[in-house]
Design brief:
Blueprint lengths: L4 E10 L3 H11 L14 E2 L5 E10 L2 H5 L3 H9 L7 H10 E3 L8 E4 L4 H7 L3 E2 L2 H5 L2
Parallel strand pairs: 4-5
Antiparallel strand pairs: 1-3, 1-5, 2-3, 2-6
């Protein structure tokens, strides 16, 4: 059986945009739990900016879905009484940058098949906020 999930998507979300990115994920995702896609920021760029990273398989139409009308997507998934905060979801949508490296002013998306390679291409390395407390 062929899966419709054929595209690897790795997303670097700056710490300040995590609430918005979670609402965006809820709007285009498939579960009411997608509002927890981006958790603690545990990656950083070379300037020390913190990011939450999510990597998942998606449908090939992900770039088109990500650019679509988020209210229509939320209604399609959950009905008119959907749980999506559209203002936050649209803020994340406007910040999306497919093929960009991570930066604090946008949500960078890599479409590389290998998540480790995608994280490197995004310009990130692992880090834990507790690391700073130990210095």
């Amino acid at each position: 059986m062929n899966s419709p999930y054929t595209l690897r998507v790795t997303i670097a979300c700056p710490e300040s945009l995590i609430p918005s990115a979670n609402q965006f994920a809820l709007a285009i995702g498939e579960s009411r739990d997608d509002d927890r896609t981006f958790g603690q920021a545990s990656y950083q760029d070379t300037q020390g900016n913190a990011y939450a990273v999510a990597s998942t398989l998606a449908v090939a139409a992900f770039p088109d879905i990500a650019a679509s009308d988020l209210e229509a997507e939320a209604i399609k998934r959950f009905g008119y009484d959907h749980p999506v905060n559209l203002a936050l979801a649209q803020q994340a949508q406007q910040a999306l940058a497919i093929g960009a490296t991570a930066a604090p002013d946008h949500i960078a998306v890599s479409l590389l098949d290998d998540p480790a390679a995608a994280i490197a291409a995004l310009g990130l390395s692992t880090w834990s906020p507790s690391d700073e407390a130990e210095i």
